[in-house]
């Protein structure tokens, strides 16, 4: 150890992922917080991608930081590898070899891992396996390991060592012939045997469960013998695995009988009646492949019994007169856990026996067996905490909906393989149920929403595990709406009748549907799912999905039920709405509303807003809070003959403030930021979504400087062209600098745009910037643009650069131009120097209405001369730098409502080109300015 000046202890005995390993190394090296924050950033990215925790890789940048720290030290890394394979530590930044001073000491057996094949997987490392030693030394090693584990648990102390010894000792005696089912019963064994004291209360069971989580018992499930278990010194005769019918020793507390028969012996062994007459301390008993009288079991005298397990046992028929003398089943009174597997024990469930069972029993596990003749109402066992009835050999249902009522202590319910259940009994009275497993319950017709406990945290319906592969699942609706603690949701297999899935109000983070085949699924509703980050769809999507409602907002929103409505809090969620295989939306409906904003979760009184149930009669109008006031600091109006409210009404008397979304709509609101989007998958999905929307509403966002950043508008040779966008409404975004950044060298953007409205953009410089161009002509971009409305954009300098045209006609459908209070605006339409014009005049063949108000720096509507043959009305106030109006036809006679002194200063080209004052009808108000105060100010 003197060779090293730094020792790093990296404990990944509970293996999570390569990234978790790298994070542990970074924590041990005490890397600065700015580096540690990168882990959270990458984890958040993977959350939105739907990457499970175990698949998360190392981060290259942090690997370089770790390497940089280690290069200045002679370092020893003590690495507890909890995975089942070799780990490339170089990817985490720990480089080894002749040119580096870092050495790694590996161990693969932490947390009692078996992992016998790891020696075949190691590379050319210098391997030294400690395998010799006396029993005392092995127990000393186990004591050290138990001490490590105890550090992660509370209040157990030395009991951890004894629990580990229990596991290793019994498994070494015959893990290859006895199914201990450690995954389900390890914690129960520890409590029932008395190693962890206080089994009458809940605390002992909670401590045992916590300990179980730190020991990988999965290695023991496959009957793998530990190579050192037989070397441990264990309490003599206390924990016994027997292979014959020997008498149980009085000191035994746990006894497992694996009746292994030879080829000449019968398949089952008969238990002698006197087998359990002496063991008064026996607390755990499991019998396998035995036969005995079920009506008079030989263990009926074991009054201290806490755990009883029967596996592949059969009833030994007795004569009628012998039944008269059968003993009482008093052992049920002390029993905490009953485990029945491949055994039909038809108990005489009289009132006395049921009362005995109900006294203390906490867990009942039944797998491919039963303890009843016809049916059994589980509500009689009111102290049950865990119930597993898996593939019973006969139905247990009584046909009543209250079979689980009043079971207020039950936390775990597993009904897997109960294919005869058609309706899930009511669980609303079972107020502590956390885990509900319905795998293989193909007869179920629906789940919820009524009758489910609000305490539910985990739900599973996996019909891939069904017994009869030819039997179709009947379930048509799964609704866990209102289960506010639900974190884990598992759905797998073929569900041909499923039509609706509702997880509203749950805490599900990732909805994984990739293994679901639901050809008739029409509705998915995910309202108020505040933690939802990703949806993983089947490879080909859900072709019949007509309704998708995702809304983490708590403000009241109403929409038609036949629409797809999605409210998300991050642009990165777009990748969950688009199938990556063929780049299309995951739903069938052609109508959708995507709302991007960070919702407010409480109102001013601290109370949660609740969304009302949406009905089919609701309109598609967005309902919300009253419209906020203008952000402009000065709303003073110079002209008393002007109502600003009337200015924003176009010639068809439509108020732009009352924006109506189209059938394919995106709304970007408060809190959304597009500054940190780097994933190519997100960029592709965002581009696809924006290329398919018909209306866009951007409002009340104080962070974005551009609607979609330029780096997100191009990828893989494709450009964002806003191909279907018809309406755009942008308001109250104080940091917005540029609305759109289109390029024209590869595509023709904005082919369908008809209306653009913007107001209260305090820092916007332009609406459309001057992007890349090409030498050809473009007669499709903006060809359908009908109206432009701009209000209170004080720093706006230009609106739209005109690039290429044919015969001087570019905006040939523009009919209305309304611009109000844009003090820095110098030109509305700037002109590209290569624009091809006929006689230096740009045609505006449909322009009818021009409203310009308080544009003090405006010099040109267009940088070249304009011809507007259909012009009907020009309305101007406060545009003192403007010197030209468009030329008109000789017979149009447009009205010009303006100041008289401004009219008198206009410049004209002559009657022959349609540009003469006689072709216009000027109107001047005699009171167009506010009266100045009378008198004078004396200096």
UniProtKB/TrEMBL annotation:
<dbReference type="InterPro" id="IPR032675">
    <property type="entry name" value="LRR_dom_sf"/>
</dbReference>
<dbReference type="Pfam" id="PF23247">
    <property type="entry name" value="LRR_RPS2"/>
</dbReference>
<protein>
    <recommendedName>
        <fullName>Disease resistance protein At4g27190-like leucine-rich repeats domain-containing protein</fullName>
    </recommendedName>
</protein>
<dbReference type="InterPro" id="IPR057135">
    <property type="entry name" value="At4g27190-like_LRR"/>
</dbReference>
<dbReference type="InterPro" id="IPR050905">
    <property type="entry name" value="Plant_NBS-LRR"/>
</dbReference>
<feature type="domain" description="Disease resistance protein At4g27190-like leucine-rich repeats">
    <location>
        <begin position="777"/>
        <end position="885"/>
    </location>
</feature>
């Amino acid at each position: 150890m003197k060779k090293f000046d730094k020792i790093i202890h990296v404990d990944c005995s509970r293996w999570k992922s390569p990234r978790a390993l790298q994070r542990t190394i970074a924590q041990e090296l005490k890397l600065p917080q700015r580096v540690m924050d990168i882990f959270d950033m990458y984890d958040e990215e993977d959350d939105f991608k739907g990457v499970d925790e175990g698949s998360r890789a190392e981060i290259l940048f942090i690997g370089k930081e770790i390497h940089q720290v280690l290069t200045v030290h002679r370092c020893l890394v003590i690495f507890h590898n909890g995975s089942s394979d070799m780990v490339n530590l170089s990817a985490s930044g720990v480089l080894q070899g002749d040119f580096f001073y870092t050495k790694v000491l590996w161990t693969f057996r932490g947390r009692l891992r078996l992992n016998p094949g790891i020696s075949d997987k190691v590379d050319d490392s210098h391997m030294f396996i400690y395998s010799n030693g006396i029993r005392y030394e092995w127990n000393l090693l186990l004591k050290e390991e138990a001490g490590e584990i105890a550090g992660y648990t509370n209040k157990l102390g030395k009991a951890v060592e004894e629990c580990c010894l229990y596991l290793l000792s019994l498994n070494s005696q015959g893990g290859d012939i006895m199914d201990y089912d450690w995954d389900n019963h390890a914690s129960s064994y520890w409590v029932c045997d008395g190693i962890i004291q206080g089994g009458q209360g809940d605390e002992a069971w909670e401590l045992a469960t916590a300990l179980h989580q730190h020991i990988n018992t999965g290695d023991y499930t496959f009957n793998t013998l530990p190579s050192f278990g037989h070397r441990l010194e264990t309490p003599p005769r206390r924990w016994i695995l027997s292979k014959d019918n020997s008498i149980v020793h009085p000191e035994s507390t746990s006894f497992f009988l694996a009746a292994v028969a030879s080829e000449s012996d019968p398949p089952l062994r008969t238990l002698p009646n006197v087998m359990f007459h002496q063991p008064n301390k026996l607390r755990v008993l499991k019998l396998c492949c035995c036969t005995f009288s079920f009506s008079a079991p030989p263990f009926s005298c074991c009054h201290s019994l806490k755990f009883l397990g029967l596996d592949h046992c059969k009833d030994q028929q007795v004569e009628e007169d012998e039944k008269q003398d059968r003993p009482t089943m008093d052992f049920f009174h002390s029993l905490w856990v009953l485990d029945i597997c491949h055994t039909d024990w038809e108990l005489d469930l009289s009132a006395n026996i049921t009362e005995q069972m109900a006294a203390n029993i906490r867990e009942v596990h039944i797998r491919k067996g039963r303890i009843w003749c016809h049916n059994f109402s589980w509500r009689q066992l009111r102290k049950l905490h865990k119930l597993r009835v898996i593939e019973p050999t006969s139905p247990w249902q009584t046909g009543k909906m209250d079979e689980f009522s009043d079971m207020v202590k039950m936390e775990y319910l597993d009904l897997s393989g109960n294919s005869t259940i058609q309706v899930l009994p009511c669980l609303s009275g079972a107020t502590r149920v956390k885990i509900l497993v319905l795998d293989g319950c193909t007869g179920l017709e629906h789940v919820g929403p009524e009758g489910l406990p609000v305490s539910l945290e985990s739900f599973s319906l996996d019909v891939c595990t069904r017994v009869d592969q030819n039997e179709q699942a009947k379930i048509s609706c799964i609704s866990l709406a209102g289960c506010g603690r639900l974190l884990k949701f598992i759905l797998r297999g073929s569900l041909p009748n499923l039509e609706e899935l509702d997880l509203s109000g749950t805490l599900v983070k990732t909805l994984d549907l990739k293994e679901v085949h639901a050809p008739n699924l029409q509705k998915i509703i995910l309202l108020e799912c505040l933690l939802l980050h990703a949806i993983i769809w089947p490879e080909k999507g859900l072709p019949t999905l007509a309704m998708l409602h995702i809304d983490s907002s708590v403000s009241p929103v109403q929409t038609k039920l036949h629409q797809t409505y999605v409210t998300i809090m991050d642009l990165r969620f777009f990748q969950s709405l688009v199938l990556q295989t063929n780049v299309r939306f995951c739903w069938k409906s052609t109508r959708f509303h995507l709302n991007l904003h960070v919702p407010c979760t409480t109102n001013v009184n601290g109370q949660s807003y609740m969304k009302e149930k949406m009905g089919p009669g609701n309109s598609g109008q967005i309902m919300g809070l009253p419209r906020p006031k203008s952000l402009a600091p000065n709303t003073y109006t110079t002209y008393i003959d002007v109502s600003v409210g009337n200015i924003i009404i176009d010639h068809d008397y439509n108020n732009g403030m009352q924006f109506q979304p189209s059938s394919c709509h995106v709304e970007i609101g408060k809190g959304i930021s597009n500054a940190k989007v780097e994933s190519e998958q997100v960029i592709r999905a965002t581009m696809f979504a924006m290329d398919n929307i018909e209306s866009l509403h951007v409002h009340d966002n104080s962070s974005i400087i551009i609607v979609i950043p330029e780096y997100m508008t191009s990828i893989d040779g494709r450009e964002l062209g806003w191909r279907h966008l018809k309406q755009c409404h942008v308001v109250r975004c104080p940091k917005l600098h540029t609305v759109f950044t289109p390029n024209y060298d590869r595509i023709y953007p904005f082919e369908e745009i008809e209306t653009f409205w913007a107001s209260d953009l305090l820092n916007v410089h332009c609406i459309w910037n001057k992007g890349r161009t090409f030498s050809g002509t473009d007669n499709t971009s903006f060809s359908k643009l009908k109206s432009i409305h701009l209000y209170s954009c004080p720093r706006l300098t230009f609106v739209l650069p005109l690039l290429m045209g044919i015969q001087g006609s570019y905006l040939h459908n523009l009919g209305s131009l309304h611009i109000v209070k844009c003090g820095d605006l110098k030109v509305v339409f700037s002109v590209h120097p290569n624009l091809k014009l006929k006689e230096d005049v740009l045609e505006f063949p449909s322009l009818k209405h021009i409203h310009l108000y308080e544009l003090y720096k405006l010099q040109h509507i267009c940088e070249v001369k304009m011809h507007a043959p259909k012009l009907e009305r020009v309305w101007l106030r406060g545009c003192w730098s403007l010197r030209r109006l468009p030329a008109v036809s000789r017979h149009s006679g447009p009205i010009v409502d303006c100041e008289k002194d401004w009219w008198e200063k206009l410049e004209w080209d002559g009657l022959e080109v349609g540009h003469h004052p006689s072709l216009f009808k000027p109107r001047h108000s005699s009171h167009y300015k506010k009266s100045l105060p009378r008198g004078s100010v004396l200096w």
